[in-house]
Specification:
Length: 225
Amino acid sequence: MSDSLSALFKNNRAWARRILERDPEFFQSLAAQQSPRYLWIGCADSRVPANEIVGLMPGELFVHRNVANVVVHTDLNCLSVLQYAIDVLKVGHVIVCGHYGCGGVRAAYFRSSLGLIDNWLRHVQDVRDRHETLIGPVADDNSRIDRLCELNVVDQVRHVCHTTIVQDAWRRGQEVTVHGWIYDVADGLLRDLRCTASNSEELTRAYDRALEHTARLVAAEARDA
């Protein structure tokens, strides 16, 4: 085994030891069941470790990650995670979390040709095309990409809410709230994108509110330019 891989096992043993020092029964309890209250749908970027960002231990956060935190209605992987989280684990909150500096969003913005992943990032390009009137007036590419990172989260929140899984949960009166957040790798802080919805009626208002917030940011940037 290479030295780099051996280091991972060493780190693992040290981590497990620290956990047991704090709670000797932690792993025994964890093995018995998982009972997370939250589902996190985030980006696969290695700089965005879901549990650590929100300070939760293993077993407290159910996680699905993919490039650019995209929710597609034909992605059985993501939909299976969503269905299991809501129908079986009974999570109360679904958090779609993007991040600034997302390589996938940047590639989609520039329409870069990277190979197979271009097909996946076509979904983010669609977000850009849908909101060109919001992104276009922004002065520089980096700021436009930031806005696209935010708008991508907002659209993915809507996609989550439109799934049959969430719609069925709402129809039967199950309490499920969907949130849109963004993480800044430059300061380690989360920001709420104001697109939270707990039922179908709230969804339209939440979506419009989030777009209005983005429009205000763009207008402010234009004034400062």
